[in-house]
């Protein structure tokens, strides 16, 4: 673990010599700041009494679901982290225990290391709760670079498509004036993705069958398909962003891309949080001009999930029933990412 104060893990046998000394000040008014997906700063206040005797801080860090265990914590129970007493705030960074977008509890006690190696300790502080942040652009760029490695060659395509049940399209016509509305993205994919549960959009696919160059006739999402010409959604008036890279314990991988009309709320959301791609030159989805006509290509070796951030009117395309099967096993709805896959994980969390 890398941090500003040399944390080390301890075990019960090492802590067997912990003694009590009431004079050591108990940390209070704990503050958590500068939170990222895998780090945070912590500070607190202490009475000046016996402050000069403090040599170490014991920090008890738990995922929130385990916080009830703190009820049974006594002064002789070993802590997860030990830090040398350094000026506050102290940075906890890169610890294996920290994951993105996860709620934690933290408590602190002061300690004084004795000549014989034993510690005298204070009472535990109050328990504070906090939540780690989403992946930053830096972390997403690491994912992007991993995805580029396996994207494969580019195949030509001409339409985006969206499969749903007949009832979905009937509802859109009756209740939304014929326009499909953006909805909040589910929690599928990387746990630290900043778009999960936050970005509003409409999912589209663009993958084609290698032998036909057309969309596959099977789908996990419904037997009715809306097809729309690619230029209606992806053109010089839109921006393209990288959103995520993941797999679901399978050999094939998914890449989430976001298309947002320039200056739209979705565009502003993505601009702050996601790496922007060059629409004409990237490894996943391109829009180029040849002889005055827009030409489109998608990566062959990853499954692209494209989120369009504005409403889409059904009159801009066609709705028809597919002839293939509804393959529910391929659905990515709320799918959990495989945390052990070396291809699509980065070291800061899952």
TrEMBL record:
GO terms for cellular component: cytoplasm. Residues 26-135 form the Fibronectin type-III domain. It comes from the Eukaryota. May play a role in the development of the central system. Belongs to the PHYHIP family. This is Phytanoyl-CoA 2-hydroxylase interacting protein like. It comes from Pan paniscus. The lineage of its organism: Eukaryota, Metazoa, Chordata, Craniata, Vertebrata.
């Amino acid at each position: 673990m890398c941090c500003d104060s040399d944390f080390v893990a301890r075990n019960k046998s090492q802590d067997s010599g912990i003694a009590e000394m009431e004079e050591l000040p108990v940390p209070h008014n704990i503050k958590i700041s500068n939170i990222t997906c895998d780090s945070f700063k912590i500070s607190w206040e202490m009475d000046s009494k016996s402050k000069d005797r403090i040599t170490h801080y014991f920090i008890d860090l738990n995922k929130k679901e385990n916080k009830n265990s703190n009820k049974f914590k006594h002064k002789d129970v070993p802590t997860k982290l030990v830090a040398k007493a350094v000026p506050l705030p102290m940075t906890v960074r890169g610890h294996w225990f920290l994951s993105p977008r996860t709620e934690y509890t933290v408590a602190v006690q002061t300690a004084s290391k004795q000549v014989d190696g034993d510690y005298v300790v204070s009472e535990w502080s109050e328990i504070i709760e906090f939540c780690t942040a989403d992946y930053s652009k830096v972390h997403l760029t690491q994912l992007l670079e991993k995805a580029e490695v396996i994207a494969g060659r580019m195949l030509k395509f001409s339409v985006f498509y969206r499969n749903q049940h007949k009832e979905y399209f009937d509802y859109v016509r009756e209740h939304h004036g014929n326009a499909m509305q953006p909805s909040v993205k589910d929690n599928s994919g990387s746990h630290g993705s900043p778009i999960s549960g936050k970005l509003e959009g409409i999912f589209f696919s663009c993958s084609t069958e290698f032998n036909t160059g057309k969309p596959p006739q099977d789908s996990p999402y419904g037997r009715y398909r809306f097809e729309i010409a690619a230029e209606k959604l992806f053109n010089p008036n839109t921006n393209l962003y990288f959103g995520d890279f993941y797999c679901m314990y399978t050999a094939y991988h998914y890449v989430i891309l976001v298309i947002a009309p320039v200056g739209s709320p979705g565009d502003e959301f993505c601009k702050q949080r996601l790496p922007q791609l060059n629409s004409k030159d990237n490894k996943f989805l391109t829009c180029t001009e040849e002889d005055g006509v827009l030409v489109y290509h998608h990566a062959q070796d990853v499954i692209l999930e494209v989120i369009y951030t504005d409403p889409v009117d059904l009159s801009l395309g066609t709705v028809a029933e597919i002839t293939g099967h509804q393959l529910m096993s391929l659905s990515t709805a709320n799918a959990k990412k495989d945390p052990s896959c070396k291809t699509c994980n980065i070291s800061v969390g899952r």
